[in-house]
Amino acid sequence: MPERLDKIIITDEEHHLPYSKGLMAVSIMATGLPPDRSYAIAAMIQQELRKQGNPNVTMMHIRCTAEEILEREVGTRYVDIYRKWQAVGNVSKPIIILMGGATGVGKSTVATMLSARLGITRQVSTDVIREVMRSSFAPELMPVLYNSSFSAFEALRSMPLPQTTDKVIVGFLEQAATVWVGIRALIERAVVERTNFIIEGAHVVPGIVDEKFSKDAFVVQLMLSVTDEQEHRSHFEIREVETEGARPFSKYIENFENIRKIQDYVLRLADEQQVPVFPCYSMDATISSVLDFIINRVFAEYTEAGPAAGEKAMECGDNGNMKAGLAAGAPRAQEEG
Known about the structure:
This protein has 337 residues and is of the alpha/beta class.
């Protein structure tokens, strides 16, 4: 048996960087596998590379080895997702994920877990955008920014409206339209910098995204929901504990009817605009479903350029028995023991 290798150098990466289990695990997590399982498989890949006895390997060889182990350990479904994500990992167009949903459905938690799984380092909440915009406008000039999305209607009290108008929805849409100015600026910046971005918040309303962005970015919009009222209420109890009272349960329960009304409205919009909705009950199941949707959606757009793009994604240069040819797109590997 070959002598154990302390380092495995990737020869086609800049500066001949060494293999890293941690960064390999990040690539594998994009398939929907949990972190502990992904890290275990990354360790298996390292063991297999050491067993082969070659201290210098290509990134393609590592990915083909990863596919063999993924297929053996977890099945072909995960191999397919891994191939697709690697195929789009080095394209020039950035990936912009826009995640909407009513207050308290779990958007921030899902977005944080998605950013870790996909290796996306930029993530922002639309509430943060609203806070920044508030610092630039006095309450008298932009009163709709000075309330939560479910109480923005309070800024409309002096505005004459027909009696049949639902002020909760009008206030919510007025605030969403205002915050969209900031969201659009972030998207434009991400396009210029070719930076992947996740933007989440109640202000990401179905159908609000400008079509023009699809030319220069992979724009993926989705919604989260919690249809069961009791389950939705429990999210606010958890939030109060996690924030040590900074986001009190009572504030949201007092406005719970308005929050549910907004959810019903945006879910109807999602249906009309054909924006996918993912129920948020089991976090693992939600993350897995959302990851699967995002990667398949981006890959589908990527391969619209022609069959060559799809064929390239399904080739594997180091192993003639496998078809996996993955474009360089995984995080650069560095040795970590």
